[in-house]
Design brief:
Layout (H helix, E strand, L loop, with lengths): L4 H12 L11 H4 L3 H6 L21 E4 L5 E4 L1 H5 L3 H4 L4 H4 L27 E2 L5 E2 L23 H6 L8 E2 L10 H13 L8 E8 L2 E4 L3 E3 L4 E6 L11 H15 L3 E7 L10 E3 L4 H15 L1 H5 L8
Parallel strand pairs: 9-10, 10-11
Antiparallel strand pairs: 1-2, 3-4, 5-6, 6-7, 8-9
Length: about 325
Amino acid sequence: MPVSAEQWWARRQWVTGRYVPHPIGEFRDAWAAFPRLVDQFHPDRNHELMLSQIPPAADVWLLWVCGIGHDFVATPAEQRARPARSRRSWCPVCATPSALPPAPKWPPGIPRPAPHLDLHNSGVGEAGGLVAAPEVQGPRPSRRRVAHVPAARTPELWRSAGEVAPGEAFVSGAASRASSAAQERLRTLVAERLDVDLSPNAVRVRTPFFGKLEVWPDLVLPELAIAVEFDTIGRAADEHVGERERVDRRKDRLLAEVGWVVIRMRCRPLRALGPYDLVVPGVSARAADELLDRMAEARGELMVAAYRPTPAG
């Protein structure tokens, strides 16, 4: 019998004896053939689980959101079993016929009212009265108004309006200027390995994050659209865990919505959150080299190589 995502995850923890029974990405290949279902799945509505952590045959109720915004509940098996055409955009709300009653028919034997005068095509008679327009053979032209669909705003339009376009990096005065010695060391190591502009400290997003349409990663690489975060558990062992981990996940999703890749360097005992995250003992030259390898995985080796400094010679 299907259970909620929270109950299912707790059961998997008890059965496997592991805090993370299924790491992120374990079932990515199984879901790769269903891109629309991946779009309909929202971790923040499913106990902060990623779809790649859930087996396709799991007996669990999951909350899905169709492209229009309707919420509905279904198991992975039910979603994957949809017919090919409806599986890509299926939604019980969209698929349900309208509940409105059919339009009533005009009662027989009762004359219909006279058609209204066409004031746009009518003239004025000799006595000053309205003269109905002559009957026109064939179908009357439709006067239905067509809704105006505004064009998408390009980055140039955002700049002309004095605003930063979603997905663009910039220097924000709202970002915290405090940084740890480890973060500064990481910045130096990255600057030695990549010829990129590290001055931006914020990225514009579409959804407010703590009341602002911007987020502040530890390192912002605009040329590669990569944000780097350095996470430690903190002196009190309460950083980037529990509720703060959920904030980290939400921040990563907001960046992904505008085309950015987040790479987190997480110090043990923290675990990886995303597919490109690193679990390291601390900031070092070796960790920086591994970071560049993850950048190459995310953006391509040729793209990253284009920003490597040219050896003097």
